[in-house]
What does this fold into?
Amino acid sequence: MNSTCKWFCLAITLLFLAGCGSGEGDDLDKFMADADKTMSTKVEPLPQVQPYVPIEFNADGKLSDPFKPRKVASNSTFQPNFNRPKEPLESFSLENLKYVGMLGKGKVVYALVKTPDNTVQQVKIGNYLGTNYGLVTAINDNEVVLKEIVQDDLSGDWVERISSLSLQE
It folds into this structure.
């Protein structure tokens, strides 16, 4: 009985193998035969790499040397107070701070500002934020408005600009 079972299994295996050996070819053989006719052999050339041209500082009088200290204009009306003590949120750039909420205590309104180290600090009008001497001038439901004092690259004068932190939901 054991030998008939072996012969039976061998016969079934041979039948399965005979079914796989059809001479027509399958889809893969047809694809390989037609591949050279349908595929293009043209490859677009790589774009030309432009050579690096260094910019010469002060060539036209508009670019300042980044390695020399900026001049401080004496006639500038907006100049930060360098003698005042820095507040904790002045160590973070404005892009890294997030306005996350607002609180009111009596008539004083506080903005809740989240720092990159995930602490939340209270800020009121008159406090400073950011690395550009940003003075908080207004706090409302949607934003904290700041008056920053930055140095102009061309003239070296201190100029005032208005920035804001929008509410992050």
